[in-house]
Design a protein that fits this description.
single chain, Glutaredoxin, four-stranded mixed beta sheet, 4 strands
């Protein structure tokens, strides 16, 4: 019985040494995005395809300040998101604040410059990126 307890304690102690720990600090792990940008579309829809580089640019320019999520609502797995967000046509962009409350919605292609304008009105700029 003592041997089993000893081995259990030993394995528990070694698990901290052998399992790599995350390199992010506690502060980095708790970064909450100021805006969540949800793109509801399909990889097979032409206007939706045009949104792909826009979403990538937003991710690169805003970093952790803006979280970008894409749902392909033409797939069986992600189709429920169309109903959840009340999608009438694709692409549809839904923007949520830091509390998860929708503050803006757009249907169709949404140019990157107009998204920057929307974010600026909310006090969010690319300069806020915190590596």
């Amino acid at each position: 019985m003592r041997l089993i307890l000893f081995i259990s304690v030993l394995l528990f102690a070694f698990s901290f040494v052998l399992i790599p720990q995350s390199k992010k600090t506690d502060e980095q792990r708790t970064v909450k995005p100021k805006i969540t940008f949800i793109e509801l579309g399909s990889v097979n829809c032409i206007p939706c395809k045009k949104m792909q580089p826009v979403m990538k640019a937003i991710e690169q320019k805003y970093g952790d300040v803006v979280k970008v999520i894409f749902y392909d609502v033409w797939t069986p797995e992600q189709k429920p998101f169309a109903r959840q967000y009340g999608v009438r046509l694709i692409p549809t962009q839904v923007f949520l604040d830091e509390n998860g409350k929708e503050f803006f919605r757009h249907e169709g292609f949404f140019p990157e410059e107009e998204i920057h304008t929307l974010f600026k009105k909310r006090g969010v700029t690319p300069a806020q990126i915190g590596g």
